[in-house]
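Notebook B, p. 112. Complex prediction, attempt 2.
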Amino acid sequence: MLNFELNPNIPTGDLEEKWQNHKFASQLVSPNNKRQFEVIVVGTGLAGASAAASLGELGYKVKSFTYNDSARRAHSIAAQGGINASKNYKNDGDSTYRLFYDTIKGGDYRSREANVYRLAEVSTSIIDQCVAQGVPFAREYGGLLDNRSFGGAQVSRTFYARGQTGQQLLLGAYSALMRQVAAKNVELHTRSEMLELVVHDGRAVGVVVRDLLTGQVSSHSAHCVVLATGGYGNVYYLSTNAMMCNASAIWRAHKKGAAFANPCYTQIHPTCIPAGEDFQSKLTLMSESLRNDGRVWVPRDFDEARSPADIPEDERDYYLETKYPAFGNLVPRDVASRNAKTVVDQGRGVGSLKNGVYLDFSDALGRDGEDTIRGKYGNLFDIYQRITGEDPYKHPMRIYPATHYTMGGLWVDYNLMSNLPGLFVVGEANFSDHGANRLGASALMQGLADGYFILPYTLGNYLSNHLGEAKVSDREPAFKQAESKVDSGTKRYLSNMGTKSIDHFHRELGKIVWDYIGMSRNRAGLERALSDIPALAHEFQKDMKILGSADGLNQSLEKAGRVADFFELAQLMAKDALEREESCGGHFREEHQTPEGEALRHDDDFSFASAWEWTGDPKKAKLHKEDLNFEFVTPTQRSYK
Amino acid sequence: MEEKINVTLKVWRQTSPNEPGFFEIIEANDISTDASFLEMLDVVNERLLDIDREPIAFESDCREGICGTCGLMINGQAHGPEKATATCQLHMRTFKNGDNIIIEPWRADAFPIIKDLVVDRSPFDEIIESGGYISVNSGAAAEANQIPVPKEVADTAFDAAACIGCGACVAACPNSAAQLFTAAKIQHLNLLPQGQAERYNRAESMIEKMEEFFGTCTNHGECESACPKEISIDFIAWTNRDFIKSKLRNPKKANYK
């Protein structure tokens, strides 16, 4: 019987004591017993690589899987801005409690206090660990670590490595992982995609993977399974995610009984380069710091055809400065994003497709000179020019919001274990710490906290209850059934005599999800999505076309399964968004806003995490609730007027 | 401004590692100059599918020049004609209407072809496995600010650490040497105070592992000009110094500095 009681297993005691108490109360596994336990870790991003490396160091026998050709290529590598930690090196009033408070508030009071406090608590150890690994963080001339303020935080707690913090942190975790591979504590399988989770006697006991080069499908059993497979932003087709990012690992675990929590919480980043024509394959994020000096505007005239330099001041609408005089162009991400959508929807967008807004540096260039601006943003201006062919020193940039993070994911308790015993979920793949909205520079923090400092304790506690037990044989029927499910799926895809590519359907799905389950949602749109998506899914199953065979590299075949899962997940997102009759963080329901147009929460009715049970049809998923109890902070309404 | 151009592609096709490969000529018409090079290949692949021909296999992931997954020889140049540009960052506005574009996979014995434009770069992982890390277990780290690192040291280490492991250096080298990749990885750690304890062992074992797979460096410098992250060949010189010192020391004693 599956368990949907969703006990968060929060330790008792004061906030400051919970994690310490819990660690002490956790059962240990002695060093010689650790050798007896096998652990599967899927994914080699920050969370997966740090988890696999740490578990290997402890002496567990780890198998690590990635679909990339090397563990170093996971999409954590693309994170730009930085990683938060409450070191208080600047002596500016930061503390564990302040980082906790900012994160809980930033998440719009939709996350679990105990988890968030623990995240803030271990944040400082992450920086120590990364520095010891050789991560070349930015330093001051005295040789000590530099910090900056990020994403509107009032303290400078963000550690960074130029604009490539994610790359450097991942290289650190990857090097730790490769050290364990060399020590034979971790067996690394590259170009291997997990296609099924295997559940036996109500416990997660293994996975079925496909070797992407040979097509061979194989079973792997273990004492427990850790998913670190990232977020589902690519459900939108166009996002800042990498091309291969997908939800299949967590979605297939969901279909085996793991509750999927808060799927409607997705984050849209306001400053990305707008989409071009249909051939566009991804969106590129431009750091938010640009809003410090750029002014956002659109023409007042709906039929404006002049080039921006020829449009006089009084015919420009600096809509953020007018509407939010106190914060102006620096309003939070979601507010900036929604306002851009409003003016573009009105038909006042800029560019040949009228799908962007101007971010204009001419005032700053006039005031500070080109050299100063180049010093601050040169790298970003180069990226922009490379992609658009336009020179942002001469013409205003065109920007538009894009999806780049998903707060929702598989439900986990305080131990990072899902409701399926033996299935742990870490990093962006779980729903745990960011509530309805993630703060800048907190994704890297969470991934590494989970992998280096939390999972190694909580996983041991779980395994200590299974001492002396052999792992389930991979010849059990559960494994054979999972393998044959993978085989039959592959056969069906390849025998489908359709006419359209997988990308075609993914693109069409993305348009629906972006229009109706994007930055702004309403009942009619969500209901529309719930009828349009199944219709398109039906067409997808009937009309997809894949050439080639199953027993070799076949990139279209890989995509087919991922897109099929996106079709189901998109419906659950719509259903979740429809049920949540309030606005909070990244989830904005037009029906629920303050007179000023801000997100309006309804704490009395919706102070819970939605955890969905698979029933065979995503439209008929069953809702379970984990109530969020705020013992230590009082939820408040935010305002940026 | 956006234009549409017609280009003729000459693309390497190879169905599997052991089959002989060949160049296929494909007319790519009506390509937007706003498209990236890989988006142009996406468009070509959709058209191939329409006429029942298997799409061209090529790799990419982040498409913003940081993951190092993509990499094509374009008209004989690793990552194409632009400086400091990975294949995914190259745009079609670099090309003119009527251009012929030859597209090949990385060419190196150590990177066998898997299919079409996809190669196996796993020897890079083996080099890292042989010593491309600082041995510190999770939880064993000292307070981060306990060891000051001079800014210029941290910055130079970063310049080396910027390597994305794409393999362009190997593909561009007439000897298929992997010195730039290996040196960047070694110097990132050897320059930092944290990396000193294993400095000479690291240089020795990584260089020797590299030599199992790759050719020998003869200072052509092609690697540096092909590198999308503009990593300097100075790192190779410094690595040679560390390697020679590693050979002169008495490994049982700490007198080798």
